[in-house]
UniProtKB/TrEMBL annotation, chain A:
InterPro entries: BP-dependent_transpt_permease, MetI-like, MetI-like_sf, OppC_N. The chain crosses the membrane at residues 26-48, 98-123, 135-155, 161-179, 219-240, 275-296. This is ABC transporter permease. The keyword Thylakoid does not apply. It holds the Pfam family BPD_transp_1. Residues 96-296 form the ABC transmembrane type-1 domain.
UniProtKB/TrEMBL annotation, chain B:
This is ABC-type dipeptide transporter. Coiled coil: none annotated. Keywords: ATP-binding, Cell membrane, Membrane, Nucleotide-binding, Transport. It is a peripheral membrane protein. Belongs to the ABC transporter superfamily. It catalyses: a dipeptide(out) + ATP + H2O = a dipeptide(in) + ADP + phosphate + H(+). It comes from Marinobacter aromaticivorans.
TrEMBL record, chain C:
This is ABC transporter permease. The lineage of its organism: Bacteria, Pseudomonadati, Pseudomonadota, Gammaproteobacteria, Pseudomonadales. Coiled coil: none annotated. It is found in: Cell membrane. It comes from Marinobacter aromaticivorans. Residues 94-335 form the ABC transmembrane type-1 domain.
Amino acid sequence: MTTATLSRWDRFRESFLWYSFKRDKVAIASFVVLVLMVLAAIFAPLLAPTNPYDLAQINIMNSELPPVGMQGADPAFPLGTDAQGRDMLSTILYGTRVSLLIGFGAVVLQAALGILFGLLAGYLGGRVDSILMRIADVQLSFSTLMVAIIVGAVFKASFGNLMFGEIAIYMLIFIIGVAEWPQIARTVRASVLAEKKKEYVDAAKVMGFRTNRIMFRHILPNTLSPIFVIATVQIANAIISEAALSFLGLGMPETQPSLGSLIKSGFDYIQSGSWWITLIPGLVLVVLVLVINLLGDWLRDVMNPRLYKG
Amino acid sequence: MKNDTPLLEVKNLDVRFAVRGGDLTALRGISFSLDKGERLGLVGESGAGKSVAAFSILNLIARPGYIAGGQILFEGRDLAAMGERELRRIRGNRIAMIFQDPMMTLNPVLSIGTQMVEALKAHRRISTKAAREIALSKLRKVQIPSPEKRLDQYPHELSGGMRQRVIIAIALLLDPEIIVADEPTTALDVTIQAEIMALLLDLCEQEHVALMLITHDLGVVSQVTQRMLVMYSGRIIEQGPTREIINDAQHPYTQGLINALPQMGEPGARLFQIPGSMPSLKNVPTGCPFHPRCKFATDQCRQTMPEYVRSGNVDVACYEVSNLIEQEKRMQEAGS
Amino acid sequence: MLAFLVQRISQAALVMFVISVIAFAIQDGLGDPLQEMVGMSVSQEEREALREELGLNDPMVVQYLRFAGKAIQGDLGKSYFYGKPTLTVIAEHLPATLELVIGASLIIMFLSVPIGVYAAIRPQEWLAKFFMGVSTVGISIPVFLTAIVLIQIYSIGVTVEWFPEDTGWGQWLNGALSTEGGMPSYGRGEDLTYLFGTWNSGFFTERGLMHLVLPCISLASIMLPLFIRLIRAEMMEVLQSDYIRYARAKGLSAARINFLHALKNTMLPVITVGGVQIGIMVAYTILTETVFQWPGVGLMFLEAITRSDIPLIVAYLMVVGLIFVVTNTLVDLIYGLVNPTVKLTGKKA
């Protein structure tokens, strides 16, 4: 499968994808910003001036210092400090790391579930299809955010605050991954139905290949580009969902903050004038989500030429 | 040849498509004319530019296509240079069009009656009631069973053949001078193709409407049209009276097309095939676009596009033909 | 029509059944009714007797049936915190949420259709590109952040002088957009009009409307860009279809083609998506209400989670589930009525 994927990827690169990427300034800028943010998140422990998880490095005397450029700022804390005296730059770097980790993790999980269920539904059809798609319908009509909030609430109630805090990253990946699988499953199912009609599938059947071999080795590689487009947008959605859950207190604890929980912890202080605790992580979150969305839009336009043909 | 000006005269029409990395030429130097009540056939393989030619007559080419040059003279007025408002008065009213696929042509969410009445109201000051009467009379003309019922039905409630009848009725609504029919039966069941075609021809004759019939079916063209155009890769390569071309095609491509007809071969024998396939718009060869598939191709064919020469009443763009004519002339001179 | 109706309603009933099973499972797994009813002092034997009496030792199916039977009669238990029947608590909070959703839906409807259609008809114009750019940024801003920023702007204090001061409406708009006496950002205010039942409305007084503005804008902010993009994409696809080209070939006016032929076909899928989006909006009210301290069911639900008020959580799930199911079913029915290609008669075309 790797070789099939790779050669397909290469073909894209050589022909249209790379060509239109080079010509699209927005796509290039988004890509550069995204890569910088991902790198900053990966190397956060090296880049951050302090370690926000290390209580010994925090001095409560430094709390609520404004960013550099405002009165009362301390040059040691370029983006100011939060209510506990943590350096905002460091917490944002670590927070981006957590947000990205959950975003990618949740999309990997939902892609795995979505591809599996989508393939099964599309290829096997019949009862399997109608049951899976009914579940997907119900879940979608209930809205993925609602499902995530409910699952989060139930988990939190059953694990208790402390325990939930410790395993929050895995919980959030699980919650968002499970809540969002129908999106990808539907896309996969639709492309499988389209692919199934094509002759190479008949050929594979006639040659006596087994069902799962046909599904994974023959059909799946041909449904990759829509999955790829959806998955990109889903990373942005997962990051927003995580932020929303954290903002509601159903996500990352303040001791191990994501961008969402940073915004939440700052929200309590916004009325006292310490806007930076909320708005700087908020801005980082928006930029992160925006560049992913822009890349997703660009990918959709490039990989789905139907929108452009006259 | 008549001397008065024809109803429709297309002169040197160029149509291009603006795409990434430059323009593609879809039609190159198209010239032809259509007289009142005449039946003209336009044949060619798919991709030859037949549909583009059909739509360009109504100046209805979808973006990114555009008319890059030439004239489309309808009663002496140039449609290619006309504003949208004036064009609207001609579209549907003086020149009507029948599309290829009746399943896609009618708006799925509007009733047949609405779609007929609106066409009348767009061109005439007329009450809805009167418009429905006219619509009904045209539906009767196309021999639709229980026409009264059809007005309130939606397209999906009709079969493909019935829909195409409705579309023919819509084409006739405003008693146009010209009907442009773009492969009107291709999308239909084989069993009713002949029926619909016969209906269309009958009605055009009855109402004295000129018909421009676009098709890839040489058989139909040979049976029903008076004159025909043969298109290849965006060019007209041969045009003239249908009977003359069918009986004695000049261009090697037209000859190939005719030889490929099943009725030309012996029963049980393999059908003739023109080797190769038509080039896509992206890489049209230099010179005569047909040269890679032509057994008579010379260096001249590969380098420059042949001009039209007249052989009998037929105009042909082919060096081989013009050389033959030259030769003949020389032999006649030598003989006399 | 009848067959279609029966089919949709039985589907809805099935979904409600699944939701009730989930709600029951949550109640059963998390709630311990004895804990709430009796103190620590009660002996083990007395507890056992009480369990027996309450039927907590019955088989699951029996317990579920009892739960479902009560639920159908409108009994979803008592809230631990409020000490009142949960449905009464929800009924008291629901109007606030519904007004928020209605207000946001109005904003979305009146802005998304014209903007989406305009952007589809004139995709090359700078204003269309501007709208699309703003939409892309819009979907990237989480709804709670929009809400916070709106509050922040109005807490710093702004004086707006965009509109002419010498006209009545200009003065009013300037005053309303400025912070002094401007836009309230917490709660629903006092000026509510009693309508019926538990419904006190903010729609009929100036102060009540002012309280609605910021929460509605922030709730609409997440859906509006989605709808604009959806309408534009659908419309652009429709505009390329054969029947639109045919309508042009018939010589119809651009207005008739765009606003009848194209728009009707565009809005059909949008209706379906719109129904789903209403459900999603209910989820987003939880976020909006938290930021604005809006006394609706969203805030109530979140408080119930922090208070571990299990009966209220379960009741909320059931009610919200019912709202989703009813709106989706209604949307399907409306879609079937508007779209002639859906065979409501069940008769073969």
